[in-house]
Write the structure tokens for this entry.
Amino acid sequence: MGTVTAPWKQLLLNALQSNSHLRHSSYLQFATIGSNGRPANRTVVFRGFADTSNKIQINTDCRSHKIEDLKQCPFAEICWYFTDSWEQFRINGKVDVIDGSNPDPMKLQQREKAWFASSPKSRLQYLGPTPGLPSLGDQSSEVPTSLDPSAGPVSAYCLLLLDPDQVDYVNLKSNERLAFSRKNINEESCWSSDRVNP
Amino acid sequence: MGTVTAPWKQLLLNALQSNSHLRHSSYLQFATIGSNGRPANRTVVFRGFADTSNKIQINTDCRSHKIEDLKQCPFAEICWYFTDSWEQFRINGKVDVIDGSNPDPMKLQQREKAWFASSPKSRLQYLGPTPGLPSLGDQSSEVPTSLDPSAGPVSAYCLLLLDPDQVDYVNLKSNERLAFSRKNINEESCWSSDRVNP
């Protein structure tokens, strides 16, 4: 299936570029539907696009609630606000959850690549206790302080790939808003864009 | 029904204080369940707590999609990341949608109070064309450039009141995480808090 570079992708790359002096410019809010039927929303870090595709990579812990959420409803919406350029991207799509048990060798390779692309320090957090569970006193002794840099992904590490099919872009400086949506025609993806009222 | 000041409220007020030099410190991401059954997520502005309660005030346009969303599922989750102090608040609760047709005089009064608390410039946007609809060329001539400052809320103005019942707090500097949850016992609200793994 052919991949067409989405028209919103260049806008997003420009926003990343013009806000790159801010550490938090790669932080975005990732909303899912919780297993209790309520919305859930948390900050995650953008880990780039998968190869040359439009798919957004996010690292997460297999033991976090969002994994359960995505098993029940595989859709998510990213809200990404750039604090310096006053631009907002709302990116909606289906999420592929890639853990170590994935049967597809290509996907396991993507997961391994993303693991090695993350810093040794951020890899360590997957060896800590289960996120969200009650903290049993001082567990710092249980968390290893180093990890062999050549060791592959640990079992708790999970790669999320969000495949956008709707993007809403707002520029609060120019007061412009664009709505992008993807249609699949004969195995080809095609994006339309419309100017809408802010 | 008695209102107990929630233990997370002071943490939030401290975070607002320590990040107040940043214009975007009052911006938060508000997730709902869209009418298509997918998550929806957008940036909104914190407009303070309603009087002395724990309820969070947000201004919105009656014609925006989130109003439809909240009619079908009245729950929302706020994700609020403070970029200077590295603190995140995830605030989940039921949302009361207060528009001009609300039958409760007390709520209409709250709506009016919130309207006058917002700047004359921000009031003007409720007189613009319907947000999200296709933009029909240059409509700047249709949007009034001033509004009588003593005029009450226009029909498109809506006040949202989120009544928190679960709050998840993470401090990325100290690596601490606290889970707060509300229980109602004999008409009294009571909050529990637990240290959980980050």
Notes: Chain A has one domain: 7-128+152-195.
